[in-house]
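Can't paste images in this forum, so I'm doing it all in text. The chain is below; anyone willing to post the predicted structure tokens underneath?
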Amino acid sequence: MNLVGEGERRFSAAEGSAVLAARPARDDLRPDAKLPDDTRLWVALQDASGGVWGGCVFDVDEIVKTLEAGRRALKGE
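Text version of the structure:
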């Protein structure tokens, strides 16, 4: 069953990802400036874990790896 589509066309999740990746981002698309800190943190952790399509479960190893890389980059290593 294909749940991804555009107009009358239906395709696999992989094809859907390619279609979405090819679309330009909207100029007016940005986080609400009033997002609570806990929501902002959740978003950052999801992003570091591979995003919502990564299973919506935190990947602790990936988060730690990302934090460590960020620390090294900030120190200029």
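The chain has a mean pLDDT of 86. The chain has two domains: 1-27, 31-77.
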